[in-house]
Specification:
2 copies of one chain form a homodimer. Chain A has helices spanning 3-19, 22-38, 40-56, 61-67, 71-86, 126-136, 150-166, 182-188, 204-213, 236-248, 267-279, 289-292, 303-306, 323-333, 346-355; strands spanning 94-99, 105-112, 115-120, 140-144, 174-176, 197-201, 226-230, 257-263, 284-287, 299-300, 314-320, 338-342, 360-365, 382-384, 392-394, 400-411. The first copy, chain A, folds into 2 domains: 3-220 and 390-407, Aldehyde Dehydrogenase, Chain A, domain 1 (3-Layer(aba) Sandwich), CATH 3.40.605.10; 226-369, Aldehyde Dehydrogenase, Chain A, domain 2 (3-Layer(aba) Sandwich). By secondary structure, chain A is an alpha/beta fold. In chain A, 42% of the residues lie in helices and 21% in strands. In chain A, helix 2 (22-38) runs antiparallel to helix 5 and helix 3 packs antiparallel against helix 7. Chain A has 15 helices and 16 strands. The radius of gyration of chain A is 24 Å and the shape is globular. A 7-stranded parallel β-sheet of chain A has the order 10-9-11-8-7-12-13, sandwiched between helices. A 4-stranded parallel β-sheet of chain A has the order 5-4-3-6, sandwiched between helices. A 3-stranded antiparallel β-sheet of chain A has the order 1-2-16, with no helix packed on it.
Chain lengths: 414, 414
């Protein structure tokens, strides 16, 4: 289908989506979950084509694993949709009410964004997941998944559309862009007339391409060059546990720790303990000159190291003279994601919390908690690293905007 | 100064701005107001150069008037800054607190955006006004005003910077881009490393250029193709008063009414009354065929008319069969600004409020009230017509983002 026609249909569907009652949405989410399980064999068969193509194209084993759909994964997808059904509906929440001296009554009410565009890479589970969140929050969604994943995405989208249609609802509340031509994606990012918000989900390259080319407002997500600062008043055992967790529990995620900042007063005691702990997982340390006075056999960290999100068993180490220098270093190199201080000193903690410019600032807690589920939102569409609209984990509520309604009896402006 | 150096300085200044206490900010705003008045003669003399150049370049008289600075206008500018000082400080407001089962305590706290870029046209009063709002909300600001206004803007900015410096604060909390080269503005819009948010203020062309070229997140403001729908159950006197007010009280503003939608059942009674009322201000009516059965001597409205923000004594008229068609027409042509229904029918009002997709939806109130002051925000940086972050009038609170702070005692993720 021609892209603009698809946009036009989504715009029509968004008005329907916005008016659905919570009960209808929840019931449809359960029916869609049932249908995806009933269609699991067909979907897995289509996924096999993507897998076969992936193998032919020498896709990286890690990516192939992300691409794979299995019966247990289909069950997890269905369960995810049922969980979204159980979450509170953000639409129509009255956020504020006030009355003006002239008698007009103003309400600020939560409303859907409208049409949300999601651009993502080769993970077919994003397709039902993003639909579920957008749908529950009253939005229509246009999905542009990776071409490596097209057969899987088509099969999933077809199943969801059929369930909507069979139940008497507009199937265009979910649409998939099937064209794999880059020019189509480029055009999609500029369809301001039809799309209200774009959310890219994927690697840094994808996100940069969307930010640079879109004219539709974008919520930038996911790049995390996360630091942990070990203060001179740190509890070293806490520091070791948290660093070990944040660096090694899962290396490929945006809330993993990529860089340590260590107070120079404790480097002689702390760094050998750190090296021993990280050696358990063969983590490579790249350190500045001052840290290398203690860790004599590690590589020198370059400027580039401090700016790199490794997503690997590598960590950089910078020594500083105190919390001020730690904050300055972090504010220079971080990506606005998650930053942590380990300290038992309340004043240092306060200063760090206040001055570090990031979505999530932690005191004595692993950065790995930056996550919609861990925050108790019950869902997550992504983690915003920009400051407009939403910052940090985004759940259903963050997929809504608001409107003002103003009711009076003939007020005019003098 | 080189643009990137200016960006680097702003980024440094934003950390200082974010930490200023409310008392310090308010005291500085009063001192800056005093200094602008003390410098009024100098500023007016520099403004005279801009005025002289404007006349030489045959600037439109309306624009020349907007460019002009006088002693009373300088007093209004100073008074504006004092009013901003009297408003509540949004920074540091605890928006939410919650605790997770693992014991970590999460706070959602209001924080400044950081560096705000304002791109605007030839109105020198925007310079102190935008600075005041950004400064009170804890932000550093980079201003790019129209080249027609450069001497005035330099004089105002110099005065503010000197007051900051003389009081021991970083003058880079306000910086002006003096280069008039378009390529500099284009580069500015892509300085994501240094600028957190861009807010364009001006005509539709300026705003489009920013939206199309910026990679920094933009808050789109100000285009208003605002409709008033006169329902079959309208109080006609209210309708006439509101339309007269919304169309003619000030024609060049974004919350002025540009288009009427009229229920066909009342067209024979209502349209002649409307024509008589609008004739008082010589408003030209352009109407669809059905309305022209009643208003036989008016021009036929084209598709283009329905999509035009006239900013002039012109109004388009579309007849519809009911509130559904009215909503569909408005959702097709509006710019997400302000839309109004005139009706005494609660059901029609409810439907309209719920289904019209715009920042401000009015029932029996003039669209001219879409304004930060009229809403009681005490200030306004602009009116957002997009759905990300802020929608409708934006005051101090909307110039803040938020961060999460998470405090624990060693929590790690399982």
């Amino acid at each position: 289908m021609e892209l603009r026609e698809l946009g036009r249909r989504a715009k029509e569907a968004k008005y329907e989506a916005a008016l659905l009652s919570t009960e209808v949405k929840n019931s449809l989410l359960h029916k869609i979950a049932d249908a995806l399980l009933a269609d699991a064999d067909k979907i897995i068969a289509q996924n096999a084509i993507d897998m076969e193509n992936g193998r032919k194209n020498n896709m990286h084993p890690g990516l192939l694993d992300r691409l794979l759909l299995t019966q247990p994964r289909m069950e997890a997808i269905a369960e995810g949709l049922r969980q979204v059904a159980s979450l509170p509906d953000p639409v129509g929440t009255v956020l504020e009410t006030f009355e003006r001296p002239n008698g007009m009554k103003i309400e600020k009410v939560s409303v859907p964004m409208g049409v949300i565009g999601i651009i993502y890479e080769s993970r077919p589970n994003v397709t039902p997941d993003a639909f579920g969140l957008c749908f529950k929050s009253g939005n229509a969604v246009i999905l542009k998944g990776g071409s490596d994943c097209l057969y899987s995405n088509k099969a999933i989208t077809d199943s969801i559309r059929r369930t909507l249609l069979e139940n008497g609802y507009n199937p265009d509340m979910i649409q998939l862009i099937e064209a794999t031509d880059r020019s189509v994606t480029a055009e999609f990012m500029k369809m301001k007339e039809y799309v209200d918000v774009l959310i890219p989900r994927g690697g840094a390259g994808l996100i940069r391409a969307v930010v640079e080319n879109a004219t539709i407002p974008v919520i930038e997500t996911g790049t995390g060059n996360c630091h942990i600062y070990v203060d001179k008043d740190a509890d070293m055992q806490k520091a070791l546990n948290i660093i070990y967790n944040a660096k090694t529990q899962r290396i490929g995620v945006c809330n993993a720790c990529e860089s340590l900042v260590v107070h120079e007063d404790i480097k002689r005691e702390f760094l050998p303990l750190l090296a021993a702990k990280l050696a358990e997982k063969d983590v490579e340390i790249r350190a500045d000159e001052s840290a290398r006075e203690v860790l004599t056999d590690v590589t020198l960290a370059t400027e580039e190291d401090f700016g790199t999100e490794y997503l690997d068993y590598i960590i950089s180490v910078k020594t500083v003279s105190g919390v001020e220098e730690a904050v300055a270093h972090i504010n220079r190199y971080n990506t606005g994601h998650s930053e942590c201080i380990i300290t038992e000193n309340a004043e240092a903690a306060e200063k760090f919390k206040k001055q570090v410019d990031a979505a999530c600032v932690y005191v004595n807690v692993s950065t790995r908690f930056t996550d919609g589920f861990e925050f108790g939102f019950g869902a997550e569409i992504g983690i915003s690293t920009q400051k407009l609209h939403a910052r940090g984990p985004m759940g259903l509520r963050e997929l809504n905007s608001y409107k003002y309604t103003i009711v009076g009896d003939g007020q005019i402006r003098a």
